[in-house]
Design goal:
alpha/beta; 17-stranded parallel sheet
Length: about 625
């Protein structure tokens, strides 16, 4: 009978699907065990290749290069820099020359291609990567590049990179994703780049980081945008000024002789100075524009740009500037991009008018995702946006939003019936949390929440001494001891707060789709005194994870959470080493979690410096893969 191993490896598709989850070193060792396994896993090992400054093993030996040549048809994704592309250009050129020689033909190359240069690294002929689908090329990590084995001894390799990349990408017909950093400082460079990018007919995802000079700054954005292929669905454009150290290393332009040949050729062909796309970017769904160090485009230029991509669904709002009229542009975007669903304001305070105008100019109840931070969203914008899009909002993701109030959080919870994620993440402790009163005054509109991340203000009476009244866990510890009371007694104020807690826990328990619960308990007025490094894991939610004990006199609310069958992560104020948790959460609660939270993968019950209680070690055994440490 065949072993399970033999049966597994007779299904190549199964092995190929397993391969990406294995460490590359293990895959390489597995391939060395037999020719059969080599053939199966070669496509896995060579599918994704990195030739960065810290990962260039294949380039260091002739055996590695020969293996790359044999398996280059398996390559689908490459991460590299200009150094590798320069090296690969010479290797592919050698392959083309060898192939032409063997077939008795002559190799004809464009006159603008730079002549081959002597390389410091060993070189063998390498075929084109015809099946390449994703290319990432970084050109700005120059200090690291100085140690790369592909670095040439001659100083001008950086001058010729645009012709090299253009020539190489013509042999990548299946390229659908390009992440590229480049320098454009002349009209000739821009012309060649627009020809290159416009010819990528299958390109769907594009990120371009383009560095240029101040003289060329105003001409570049629209020239690049209107040369892009209409196949694009995701576009991220970033523009910055060329730094001095870039100039010293890359030099200002290509060799004059190379450019002269190229420019003369364009004159003979009678070509237009710049390539321009015919028709709009009809497939574009995601758009992001970023300008560093200098103002971006004018209002009219932005209007021309957004008028060419009416189908965008996700937008990172462009940075504003003195030459921009944000109200006019905001209304144009909101009205002429009817499919816009996800808006992320940029991180500049001056963009509040532009962001607000876009959000409120959109058709009512069409926004799905709202992202923002403390800088670009004030309370007025948030409130108006929630009112305008309450019926459609699915995700609200806000970082360090100090303008957020408890009333605004309540508005999101009670007015957004389609809400799937509410994430209010704060590094500091200065952001005002949701109060118990606001959290429980009205039913939450949505029962579709998958992630809930926020801070809730807890009454100080549950943590600190109040008018000679000790917190309940101090009194609980005394119950049953000699000469002490036999049952815990709650005063009226505590009972009122317990009723609010029960309503809060009940609201959470109704979220049957919930997968991530990230809650911080913030003890009342003392929260403002806590430092940014404070761990809210020490401030547990009172009795939330307890089943209670009627005989001793304290309630428990864990059973209200039995509907959270899909819960995977429990993060925040759930430390099982706090005074109240040690007294109120034990083996019966752990048994309950084992039965009802079978999907739990992470729970912040303990820190690495605290030894877990025995019952929680058993919980780890009952739920394999569960991490109980923060």
């Amino acid at each position: 009978m065949c072993s399970a191993r033999s049966q597994f490896f007779t299904i190549p598709e199964l092995a190929v699907n397993l391969g990406p989850f294995l460490w590359r070193g293990d895959v390489a060792r597995l391939m060395r065990t037999s020719r059969f396994l080599y053939d199966i896993f070669a496509s896995v090992l060579f599918r994704q290749l990195s030739f960065s400054s810290f990962d260039f093993g294949l380039l260091e030996s002739s055996n590695g290069l020969k293996a790359l040549a044999r398996n280059i048809h398996h390559v689908r994704e490459v991460q590299s820099g200009l150094l590798f592309l320069n090296f690969y250009y010479h290797c592919q050129l050698a392959y083309e020359q060898q192939h032409a020689s063997q077939s008795g033909t002559s190799l004809e190359l464009p006159s603008w291609l730079p002549p081959p240069q002597p390389l410091r690294l060993s070189m063998i002929p390498l075929p084109p990567m015809h099946n390449l689908t994703s290319l990432a090329c970084r050109s700005t990590h120059l200090k690291e590049d100085l140690g790369h084995p592909a670095l040439d001894k001659h100083p001008n390799y950086g001058r010729n990179y645009i012709p090299i990349v253009y020539w190489l990408t013509r042999s990548f017909p299946n390229l659908v994703k390009l992440d590229f950093e480049l320098f454009v400082e002349s009209k000739q460079q821009l012309l060649l780049f627009t020809r290159m990018i416009s010819g990528m007919r299958n390109l769907q995802w594009l990120r371009l980081v383009i560095y240029t000079s101040e003289v060329f700054w105003a001409k570049l954005p629209l020239a690049v945008f209107f040369s892009l292929p209409s196949s694009l669905s995701t576009l991220r454009l970033e523009f910055g000024l060329v730094a001095a150290h870039h100039r010293l290393f890359m030099l200002n332009s290509m060799e004059d002789a190379v450019w002269d040949r190229f420019w003369d050729l364009q004159g003979k062909e009678g070509a237009r100075p710049l390539v321009r796309r015919q028709g709009p970017l009809g497939n574009l769904k995601v758009l992001s524009f970023t300008f560093y160090q200098r103002p971006g485009m004018t209002t009219d230029e932005y209007v021309a740009l957004f008028g060419d991509c009416p189908g965008i669904e996700s937008l990172i709002v462009p940075w504003s500037s003195a030459q921009l009229e944000p109200a006019i542009l905001g209304r144009f975007i909101g009205q002429h991009c009817p499919k816009l669903r996800n808006v992320t304001p940029s991180g500049i305070r001056d963009d509040t008018v532009l962001s607000a105008t876009i959000l409120t100019s959109m058709a009512p109840h069409t926004l799905h995702t709202l992202r923002g931070n403390a800088i670009n969203l004030d309370a007025g914008i948030l409130s108006a946006t929630i009112d305008h899009h309450s019926s459609s909002l699915r995700k609200v993701l806000l970082l360090e939003c100090m303008t957020m109030t408890s009333a605004l959080i309540q508005k999101i919870l009670v007015q957004c019936p389609e809400l799937e994620e509410l994430s209010l993440y704060d590094y500091s402790t200065s952001v005002r949390p949701l109060t118990l009163a606001d959290a429980t005054s009205e039913p939450w509109a949505s029962n579709k929440l998958k992630k809930l991340q926020l801070r809730v203000a807890m009454p100080d009476m549950f943590y600190l001494r109040q008018k000679n009244q000790r917190p309940y866990f101090d009194r609980l510890a005394a119950v049953g001891t000699t000469g002490k009371q036999q049952s815990l007694v709650w005063n009226d104020a505590e009972q009122r707060q317990l009723a609010l807690l029960e309503r809060l826990y009940s609201q959470i328990g109704k979220q049957t789709e919930l997968e991530v619960l990230d809650l911080d308990a913030v003890p009342g007025p003392t929260s403002v005194k806590r430092g940014a490094g404070h761990s809210f894991q020490f401030d547990a939610f009172p009795l939330m994870l307890s089943l209670g004990d009627p005989e001793v006199g304290y309630p428990g609310y864990l059973d209200l959470l039995r509907g959270l069958k899909r819960l995977r992560r429990l993060i925040g104020s759930f430390g099982m080493f706090s005074r109240d948790s040690v007294l109120t959460v034990g083996e019966k609660e752990v048994e309950w979690m084992t039965r009802h939270w079978v999907s739990l993968q992470e729970a912040h019950f303990f820190t690495r410096t605290i030894t877990p209680r025995e019952c929680f070690l058993k919980l780890q055994e009952q739920l394999p893969g569960l991490n109980i440490y923060n």
